[in-house]
């Protein structure tokens, strides 16, 4: 007999609360993005919550008492045909709640539900104008990022794009810098530094000569799109370009 239960987990970190549904003897196949070993099932839930593109977990207990977590980038909701019987496994699916509407869920055809909004990454080559027109034609808008968790989700979606042929196909990502201290090809000059802002480490420029350099990027393209996350201090000391190419 297969049991389906909805249970409340007292998972609280700051203001983050998560709900999961559980199905015994089941596991989601073909969607594992990461496998980790932890000391108890509740730790699998936090592994999923902390992974922007994790929507469910397959959990199995090991003979030594530890637990194996398989993080899935899909769910029973999006791919019901992939939920299959698995002896010794438990399937846990992340759900959106009123207590935490930020948590996302996966939907069919590659769509993601983030709070009350749906988002999808399309790989077809389009200019900004063409992309905007396309989004409008299906009742949507080009994505705009307001909150940090939205940035994390979009960044992870972009990270899935194959960049091995960068420069060969115009729609591939040519360059990307997180500017959080993890980029090994970014140099800080004239007082530029990394600072914590709302628990997020980011590049700080004082507007008085501080700047950073990156490897050169070829802008000799028919069209390209540049995206950046910038928080301006008030007042702005000295208006200056966000990104420049000196030759």
From TrEMBL:
<feature type="domain" description="Apple">
    <location>
        <begin position="15"/>
        <end position="96"/>
    </location>
</feature>
<keyword id="KW-0732">Signal</keyword>
<feature type="signal peptide">
    <location>
        <begin position="1"/>
        <end position="18"/>
    </location>
</feature>
<dbReference type="InterPro" id="IPR016187">
    <property type="entry name" value="CTDL_fold"/>
</dbReference>
<dbReference type="InterPro" id="IPR016186">
    <property type="entry name" value="C-type_lectin-like/link_sf"/>
</dbReference>
<dbReference type="InterPro" id="IPR013320">
    <property type="entry name" value="ConA-like_dom_sf"/>
</dbReference>
<dbReference type="InterPro" id="IPR003609">
    <property type="entry name" value="Pan_app"/>
</dbReference>
<protein>
    <recommendedName>
        <fullName>Apple domain-containing protein</fullName>
    </recommendedName>
</protein>
